[in-house]
Amino acid sequence: MPKKRHRVKDPDLLGVEPALRRAAQAARRIAKATNTPLIIWENGKVVEEWMR
Predict the structure, then answer these.
(1) Which structural domain range is residue 41 located in?
(2) Residue 19 belongs to what H/E stretch?
């Protein structure tokens, strides 16, 4: 079953999803460059993800 998409009318909220995606991409790039784990929430648990 496809997820239902909500229409955002608040102009301040329109850029939130793209900004979060850019931040996640930057965090992965930094974790890889510094050889540190990325801490993520996956399947209801906190997990260390190593970027190699």
Answers:
(1) 16-50
(2) helix 16-34
User: Residue 21 falls within a domain, yes or no?
Assistant: yes
Token output for 3: 């997820």
Distances (CA, A) of 17 to 5, 12, 23, 32, 47: 13, 11, 10, 23, 22
Residue 11, pLDDT score: 82
Structural domain includes residue 20? yes
Span 3-20, pLDDT tens digits: 777 787 888 888 888 999
Q: Are 23 and 10 in contact (CB under 8 A)?
A: no
